[in-house]
Amino acid sequence: MAKRTTLYVCQQCGTSFSKWAGKCDNCGAWNSLVEEAKQLEKKAVVDRSTGKVLSGEKIADVHVEALGTRLATGFAQLDEVLGGGLMPGGVALLAGQPGIGKSTLLLQLVLSVGASEPVLYVSGEESAGQVKLRAERLSKSLPENVTLIATTSADDIAATIATGTYRLVIVDSMQTVAMAEVASAPGTVSQITNSANTIIRAAKASNTAVVLVGHVTKEGSIAGPKVLEHLVDVVLQFEGDRYGGFKLLRAAKNRYGSTAEVAILEMDGEGLKEVENASASLLSERGKSDGSVVLATMEGNRPLLVEIQALVNPTHFGYPKRTASGFDLNRLTLLIAVLEKRTKLNLSDKDIFINVVGGLRLVDPAADLAVCMAVASAAAERTLADDLVVFGEVGLGGEVRRVGSIELRVKEAKKLGFKHAIAPASKDGGTFVSPVSDLRDALNLHLTKNN
């Protein structure tokens, strides 16, 4: 009989160990080793390779088989993120934190595509009845082309996909799917990797578009082995505040299109809807107060105006508090140090709070100048002019550096009625930009008096 043994497999990189340890020696992840049962054969013989010499063909002579037209998702912005819609035979991985709306988005997609094409929705987390109740809340009429299956068997799912009956298949989610041949719990590295391989092979063979749902860790990265992201063709990340505000859907990887596009969605009683004019929505409730600055940022290729709020208070403790919502806290600490050193603002005894309105999370370097202006405005209790937008990267010397897509930022600001921009000098901005060379110039020119 085969001998059973226990191995400990890292859930981040897939490396196996004979003993449990708190840290994986291969990738350095802590508490990632999970016990799995393995089968070892009595005889382990490495046979001589029996492969054959392969004959190829010239790249110019390769015949490209027609894949067929892309599937429209029902969301114009999502189609742009995907590069024109769902590719037949393509496999996409959608990941996001619990409750953000992954299942709602995919169910709306299924109802839209199912109006004209056969679609299969595989649920490993809910029963078919629960999925139908959600579908009835999202749509008054349910299409006949949509089929629901509640199963966690990767073998059965792959066999169903291989029939070629469906144009689109949704698998919700990969963490619940398992293969019978793999002796480990669902959600482990072995199960996710082998199940994904089986489903992907069936999708490619039958030219079926497949969307896999993935979970995220508490740090925000996609849960499971990194190899899963390499196996699929498209990796979509659903970001935002699950309790409200805008939600961003971007492609972290896309073999069929650009990764610079982003879809901006908002949840209401009827499901997720596209936000056509996100800048106007974000600024609709803006009040006039110190510490309020409008940033012209970029989300992918789309310009967006967002309000950044700062609050500066005297601290009641020995160590001042710094808190940031929607902005990197380490970056905020660095910018505060630059403000203190280069502009002589005394912030060492102040609690500083930063908030990005709308639940967005900024990664654009151009937000540096806006954050600095907001902190300085709150500290000096002086407001900026209402018709000003701000953007620019700040260096450690206090210099304001040039950023990309200035023309798009200026165009978006003009469309919403803004008259000037505090930004680094550039030909793309024209007379709309009031150029500043460093933080000292920006504060002296725009915070010298109450507006």
Structural summary, described in words:
There is one protein chain. The chain has 3 domains: 3-40; 76-276, 3-Layer(aba) Sandwich (Rossmann fold), CATH 3.40.50; 280-446, 2-Layer Sandwich (Ribosomal Protein S5, domain 2), CATH 3.30.230. It is 25% helix and 26% strand. It has 11 helices and 21 strands. The strands form 5 sheets. The chain has a 9-stranded mixed sheet. A 4-stranded mixed sheet has the order 13-14-16-15. Helix 2 (102-113) crosses helix 3. The chain is globular, with a radius of gyration of 26 Å. The termini are far apart.
List the helices and strands and how they pair.
Elements: E1 3-10, E2 16-17, E3 33-40, H1 76-82, E4 91-96, H2 102-113, E5 119-123, H3 128-138, E6 146-150, H4 154-162, E7 168-172, H5 189-206, E8 209-214, H6 227-231, E9 234-240, E10 246-254, E11 262-268, E12 271-274, H7 278-283, E13 292-299, E14 302-314, E15 322-325, H8 329-343, E16 350-356, H9 367-380, E17 388-390, E18 393-394, E19 400-401, H10 406-415, E20 420-423, E21 433-435, H11 439-446
Helix pairs in contact: 2-3, 4-5, 8-9
